[in-house]
From TrEMBL:
Residues 4-128 form the Calcium-activated chloride channel N-terminal domain. It holds the Pfam family CLCA. Residues 970-986, 1023-1035 have a biased composition (Polar residues). It comes from the Eukaryota. It comes from Meganyctiphanes norvegica (Northern krill). The lineage of its organism: Eukaryota, Metazoa, Ecdysozoa, Arthropoda, Crustacea. The keyword Transmembrane helix applies. InterPro entries: CLCA_N, vWFA_dom_sf. The chain crosses the membrane at residues 846-872. Gene3D superfamilies: von Willebrand factor, type A domain. This is Calcium-activated chloride channel N-terminal domain-containing protein. GO terms for cellular component: protein-containing complex.
Length: 1127
């Protein structure tokens, strides 16, 4: 009912040009359909077709609930990945519920089929708000123009200025323009029809059957070289015996100039003799027919005959070719194979073995690649590696892994295909122990298999230890040897979770080695899945018309929900030999789910993407593989929120549950435990026709505008693009402020000056501009240009509105006759009066303000008077107390020079007579300058004595201006306690706590001022805690000049190369990226002069003080002495 209603609405909205004709409903293989046949309109058929579903019926989404939503990973005009909806949406029982569900499905179908996006806004979305200012009325309005039964705005109602996701991705074009330019309608295809029966689709119910796979192996003379044919036989055996899922139908065909069936299609079960028979069915020796005589079409036709021999329908089967791919296949044969594969819905996977290319060859087998691409298959490549007459072990294992990847692509995700847990190669040459570890987490099943691959059985010594996480050793009874696959394997049916340890005695030759692998099935509790694809399989750079750049996509899911904040790394291997005769180093690429718009469309959808870097001068084929893990515990997955848990009506319009803005706003997430997945995608072809840089910066699609009404400043924010799409950094920006949307889109209008220098791609940038155009809608657009003058696309056009600032209202004047009744009222009309206003205020308001101000001033005056009286009283009391003190201390003396005179009233008198008229200070003990400074440094040294408070230890130098001992009076000339002349007292000086304010306190690191550069300072060796004070460190003492300069402290910082990012391999031989800054690549362009550095050098220390007491008083005017150790 829902599909019929949906077809009718599709027929109406497309003006009778499209409707559903046929629908296949695929039921899970695990369902028992015997009880369902009575309620279905047609019988269930069994099919092996494993095509991606257009619409997926699943459990409710954590945010969207049962409402349908479309996953779109590519840009405007590109088909989406799939539509997903909750099963509850199809459980309605009324016509109203059917039509509501059909209306929701209609809009998502347009996005999925024709590559359009939503023409509505979203609450709290930073890029696509729910409202905007209408350019025709200058008034706010909702960001939507949708009508009932219309999934998108009509062409006449479309507003290109609206900040919608569709306008940003499609450059303001109407959605219906994109739809009618698609392949379904372009060139007057599918014209309007009056047939009403076209609205009723035919529905077929199909249940997924077991996979059917035919291995088609080339048997020509090229396989006679070295151990190529031996490795083919061993790889086929391992694939059939160990990797094929139970219940699959498998057959083997060999071909050269003709083709024949080596083993008919047969069903294989667990540990059956059929696995052994099929795995050993290849001839022991290859033929002598030249490779140029091979017939690829003959092998494909023989595979179809093997599939036809099966009792059930073999539609949707998989054919895996193993061929050298050297000789080109005639186009006639390729066209015939493509036609047969399309009719039978056959998937073709190709393994190019061995891949024999010359140095930096630009050869690309276009025929084989086009055939595989047309049938949704992939190409795997195995490099030809050998020494003399011997082929390397790595070549055999690579062929086995290619078979495993092709089988995984050919079967559904529910099949128990082994997952790679660990992979590492140990070179030979010296007898040693190959030691390693791997982790089996709960994302894998409990059936662990550990493999030891060897080129010769004698390369494996007698010691083979596999230790469980609990410390127990796996017994030798669990080990098995398969000489037909050159492997010793250990099967652990109920493996422990945790870290496993192994050590194997390695006796391999110098040109060989041992390879360790661990595999397991997928966990039934946690289904972590990794899917990899690209927008295209080939790219041409440097031509007059460069092709579409390759974008890598990786979808990471935990069951039916996306995995957020995972670490996803792609690895590209150049499948050629460099000029030095060795392999190229892999290139590692971090993928991101950030929702910046180019290339990642929506943030938080579990799709990680990125452009591949420009391979200047490196034409050829590249093998792509991807690794994902839980990002050191930072990854998580969304869980259902309150809305989706409650039983709300499924058909009411709820904007919060619509998909999808710039980012999916999950309300609840939960962290994920450890997991790791590997996936081999296949081969990409890159042809570079020039050494010039032809890749422009990527588009800026997250330009945002914020307005400060007080300062009339407008802040622009965006994510920096790169030099080559999202790699590196651009050279400069072009930004325009326009009065119309069309001008901004064409980058016309007023040029915005003062734009910042671009930074590394993925970093947010901002700039403030002054706008003095008020009460009108303005538009801003920006683009980046690289150093080769390659111009990026125009950004999304951002809208801004600057209201006119308020002005002062002048005094109101009147021309009417004054009214005698009141002086406070002026006549507005004959019957309306209004208070007189001055500068916008009436008389009553002014009186109130003046009264409040006068009262406030009166309070201030009273408080000031009271304070003055209190000060005078305290002063009188203090003076009286001091006078009493003078009378009581006449017996105490003041030591002075005998020649001292006091001049007063133009007369001279002796000291004795002067004492009578002055305040006498009590005699206090005195100390010498050296004793005083020693005690001061002893008490406040950072290496001895009690430590100062942490807050007091960091005070700035300029605050040390007051007398260090303000309460002490020093008398006499002979104050040295060690001198022969006795002073008044020789007791220790009191402790001093400097008084200062924390306002001038600066957190470390701060710039310390001195004229001496760090090169002039003596060498420094860090030492432990010392009991010596600062005076003992004479070798680190230095005089400082009065005019300071900056000392820079160096810091050992990581140096990022300007080349492509690469990371060290982990034990699996894949990649373990180094934790880089938040986005994209290392900040290799940051000058080291801009980094704070930590060069270990001694701070300068003040010299030993002089005898004069003035040297003990530190002032800002005398910076020649400073204890920097305390600073």
């Amino acid at each position: 009912n829902v599909l019929s209603a949906f077809s009718a609405k599709l027929f109406k909205s497309t003006q009778a040009r499209a409707s559903l004709r046929e629908v296949s409903v695929v039921l899970p293989h695990s369902w028992d359909t015997d009880s369902l046949t009575c309620s279905l309109t047609s019988p269930i058929t069994i099919s092996a077709v494993d095509t991606p579903a257009h619409i997926r019926v699943s459990s409710n989404h954590p945010v969207f609930g049962a409402r349908p939503w479309t996953q779109q990973s590519q840009g405007c005009g590109k088909s989406g990945d799939y539509i997903q909806l909750g099963g509850n949406l199809l459980c309605g029982t009324t016509n109203e519920s059917y039509h509501q569900a059909a209306s929701q499905l209609l809009g998502e179908w347009a996005k999925f089929r024709w590559g359009v996006f939503d023409e509505r806004g979203y609450e709290k979305d930073p890029l696509f708000p729910a409202t905007f200012r209408d350019p025709s009325s200058n008034e706010p309005r909702p960001t939507s123009c949708l009508e009932k039964d219309k999934p998108f705005c009509l062409p006449n109602d479309h507003v290109p200025q609206a900040p919608t996701k569709h306008n940003a991705q499609c450059g303001g074009r109407a959605a219906w323009d994109i739809i009618f330019q698609s392949q379904d309608f372009h060139g007057d295809r599918n014209l309007s029809s009056n047939k009403t029966d076209a609205m009723i689709p035919t529905i077929h119910f199909v249940q997924a059957g077991p996979p059917s796979i035919v291995l088609v192996v080339e048997d020509t003379a090229v396989m006679n070289i070295q151990r190529r044919w031996e490795f083919v036989r061993k790889a086929v055996r391992r694939t059939v015996v160990y990797d094929m899922p139970d219940g699959a139908y498998v057959g083997v065909v060999v071909f050269n100039s003709v083709a024949r069936t080596a083993t008919a299609l047969a069903k294989i079960d667990s540990d059956s003799d059929i696995r052994q028979r099929i795995g050993s069915s290849l001839p022991r020796n290859p033929s002598q027919i030249p490779e140029s005589h091979k017939c690829l079409l003959c092998g494909f036709q023989e595979a179809l005959r093997a599939l036809d021999s099966q009792a059930s329908d073999a539609t949707g089967a998989t054919v895996i070719f193993v061929t050298t791919g050297i000789s080109s296949t005639p186009q006639r044969e390729l066209d015939e194979m493509t036609h047969l594969a399309t009719v039978r819905q056959i998937r073709i996977e190709a393994i190019v073995y061995p891949f024999m290319e010359h140095i930096d060859s630009t050869y690309v087998n276009k025929g084989l690649e086009s055939l595989v691409s047309a049938t949704r298959g992939s190409v795997f490549t195995v490099m030809d590696e050998g020494v003399g007459n011997d082929s390397k072990l790595s070549m055999m294992v690579a062929l086995m892994d290619s078979f495993l990847g092709a089988v995984r692509h050919s079967t559904s995700s529910s099949s128990k295909i082994p997952l790679l847990v660990h992979n590492k190669e140990y070179p030979g040459g010296i007898v040693s122990m190959a030691k390693g570890t791997f982790t089996l987490d709960d994302s894998f099943g409990s059936d662990l298999r550990f493999f030891i691959y060897y080129a010769d059985l004698g390369h494996v010594g007698n010691t083979i230890d596999l230790i469980m996480p609990s410390g127990k050793k796996v017994t030798s009874a669990s080990m098995q040897e398969d000489g037909d696959a050159n492997v010793i394997y250990i099967k652990v049916p109920d493996a422990e979770r945790g870290e496993w340890v192994y050590q194997i005695e390695n006796r391999a030759d110098s040109h060989q080695g041992l390879i360790m692998q661990a595999t397991s099935s997928e966990s039934t509790a946690r289904q972590i899945s990794l899917k990899v694809w690209t927008n295209t399989k080939s790219m041409v750079t440097g031509g007059h018309e460069p092709s579409i750049p390759i974008i890598i996509y990786a979808e990471v899911m935990d069951g039916e929900v996306p995995v957020i904040n995972a670490r996803v790394v792609a690895k590209l291997i150049h499948l050629h030999i460099n000029t030095e005769g060795s392999k190229y180093k892999p290139v590692y690429i971090d993928l991101y789910d950030n929702g910046f718009g180019d290339p990642d469309i929506t943030g938080g959808d579990g799709i990680y993407s990125r452009y591949i870097p420009q391979m200047i001068g490196l034409s050829g084929q590249y093998e792509l593989s991807v690794m994902v893990d839980n990002n050191n515990g930072l990854s998580n997955k969304p869980i259902s929120n309150v809305i989706t848990r409650n039983s709300l009506k499924l058909y009411e319009g709820n904007e919060k549950r619509m998909c999808c803005g710039s980012i999916i706003a999950y309300e609840y997430v939960t962290p994920l435990k450890n997991f790791q997945r590997f996936e081999t995608y296949g081969v990409l072809s890159i042809v570079s026709q020039t050494l010039k840089d032809t890749m422009p910066p990527n588009r800026i699609l997250d330009l945002k505008v914020s307005v400060n009404l007080l300062t009339s400043l407008v802040t622009l924010r965006w994510t920096a693009p790169g030099n080559d799409y999202d790699w590196g950094k651009a050279n400069h920006y072009e930004a325009y402020l326009s009065e119309s949307w069309d001008q901004a889109k064409a980058l016309a209008g007023e040029i915005i000056s003062g734009m910042p220098i671009p930074v590394t791609a993925g970093t947010e940038q901002s700039v403030e501009i002054f706008v003095n155009k008020y009460d009108q809608i303005l538009y801003v657009a920006i683009r980046a240009i690289d150093e080769s003058c390659n111009k990026g696309g125009v950004s999304n056009v951002a809208e801004l509105w600057m209201p006119k600032p308020p002005t002062t209202i002048p005094p109101t004047t009147t021309t009417s006759t004054p009214q005698p009744t009141s002086l406070l009222i002026e006549s507005i009309s004959s019957d309306i009066t209004q208070p007189v206003r001055v500068d916008g205020l009436d008389i009553e308001e002014l009186a109130l303000i003046i009264g409040a101000a006068a009262g406030f001033l009166l309070i201030i005056a009273i408080l000031a008077t009271l304070c003055l009286i209190n000060v005078v009283r305290r002063h009188r009391y203090q003076q009286k107390k001091e006078n009493n003190g003078v009378e009581g201390n006449r017996n105490k003396r003041i030591k002075t020079n005998s020649s001292l005179k006091i001049e007063q009233d133009n007369s001279s008198a002796s000291v004795d007579s002067a004492v009578k008229n002055v305040v006498v200070v009590p005699t206090l003990p005195s100390w010498s300058a050296s004793k005083l400074l020693q005690e001061h440094e002893k008490r406040f040294s950072t290496t001895s004595g009690p430590l100062m408070d942490a807050q007091l230890a960091g005070f700035p130098y300029q605050n040390m201006q007051q007398d260090p001992y303000p309460d002490v009076t020093l008398t006499g000339n002979n104050s040295d306690p060690n001198s022969e002349t006795n002073s008044v007292a020789q007791s220790d000086p009191p402790a001093y706590q400097p008084s200062y304010t924390s306002d001038s306190y600066q957190r470390y690191p701060y710039d310390y001022q001195t004229n001496n550069t760090h090169e002039d300072l003596p060498p420094y060796t860090p030492q432990g805690p010392s009991s010596q004070n600062s005076q003992a460190s004479t070798e680190y003492t230095r005089e400082l000049d009065s005019h300071p300069s900056i000392i820079q402290y160096s810091q050992d910082s990581p140096v990022y190369s300007n080349s492509l990012p690469s990371y060290p391999s982990d034990e699996s031989g894949f990649v373990q990226p180094v934790q880089l800054p938040p986005m994209y690549e290392g900040y290799n362009d940051i000058s080291h002069k801009q980094l704070v550095k930590h060069t270990k050098m001694p701070p300068p220390i003040a010299p030993k003080p002089n005898v004069s007491i003035c040297s003990a008083i530190l002032t800002a005017s005398d910076p020649t002495r400073r204890n920097v150790t305390q600073v």
